[in-house]
Amino acid sequence: MTSAVDNDIQIDEKIKIIISEPKKYKVLFLNDDKTPIEFVIEILISIFKHSEETARDLTLKIHDEGSAVVGIYSYEIAEQKGIEATHLARNAGFPLQVKIDPE
Questions:
Q1: How confident is the model at residue 101 (pLDDT cuts 50, 70, 90)?
Q2: DSSP code of 49?
Q3: CATH assignment of 24-102?
């Protein structure tokens, strides 16, 4: 018993490997009338590692323009920092709003 194997099969498949950088996400603070400026500055220094001068500038921008980007990170880090900032604000009794948007 013999079996014939067809060796004429050609695979014309091309596999492209596409490597892309992970998306970055912006962490934004939104302005409100109840959260004190000093508290926002404290969060920017402790969680987002801004200098005191940069933290003051960002806080004034939030106050004047309604919002400001306080950091740009990978999704997981942006989410964690947003949760930390919101948690601190709620524990202190402030309604600070933190938003995470794709860059």
A1: very high
A2: -
A3: 3.30.1390.10
